[in-house]
Write a structure and sequence with these properties.
The chain is mainly alpha-helical and 194 residues long. It has ten helices and three strands, in the order H-H-H-H-E-H-H-E-H-H-E-H-H. Strands 1-2-3 form a three-stranded parallel beta sheet, with no helix packed on it. Helix 1 crosses helix 2 and helix 1 crosses helix 3. About 12% of the residues have low confidence.
């Protein structure tokens, strides 16, 4: 199993840079080429984040990361692979797909003051539609009985609750309680419901 240090050595960058890229740290300033190289090396070495390693005890676990840059066809600067290649080779093979999708960022407004001025109802509607489009693609990667984790950094109902409801109505997935995965002090009815 690959480590961050091994990936850093092959990518000729620091371990801190690798960690920040793999954790999608938006404050990190690296070129798209460096970011893509790190992600590609991590994928080739079958890197599994430490939090997910416990899941590999009994059998081989396939984890897919649905980084929105990979799925968007209008991003020529991303050269990992195309959505067409992914859907053919990874269809129904992932035990867990983590879909960390683009959003309005209303949940991180404290760190990014410009969000307050740039977010409009029209932009939220467009982002919710893009999220649905991406979810429609990445759900194909999840094997029967697998898990799709949908993640945003917003508090917008259109991008969260309404998209979850839409997804449940259109695809054979159900919500699962998050209580086993979050600290007790943050558990509530919403984490219990999924």
């Amino acid at each position: 199993m690959a480590t961050i240090k091994e990936i850093a050595k092959l990518a000729h960058v620091s371990a801190a840079t690798v960690s920040r890229v793999l954790n999608q740290d938006e404050t990190l300033s690296v070129t798209p080429e460096v970011k893509n190289q790190i992600i590609k090396i991590a994928h080739e070495l079958k890197y599994v984040p430490p939090k997910m390693r416990h899941a590999k005890r009994d059998r081989q676990i396939v984890i897919g990361v649905a980084d929105w840059h990979i799925v968007r066809r209008d991003r020529p600067d991303v050269s990992i692979t195309s959505a067409d290649n992914l859907s053919g080779s990874f269809a129904q093979k992932a035990d867990i797909v983590m879909a960390d999708l683009p959003c309005s960022g209303l949940g991180v407004m404290g760190r990014k003051a410009d969000i307050k001025r740039s977010v409009t109802p029209e932009k939220i509607t467009a982002l919710a539609a893009l999220q649905r489009e991406i979810l429609s693609v990445v759900q194909h990667y999840v094997k029967p009985g697998g898990v799709l984790i949908y993640s945003t950094c917003t508090v917008s109902k259109a991008e969260n609750e309404e998209n979850m409801q839409w997804f449940e109505e259109h695809f054979p997935f159900g919500l699962e309680s998050l209580d086993a995965y979050v600290p007790e002090k943050v558990r509530n009815e919403q984490t219990k419901a999924g």
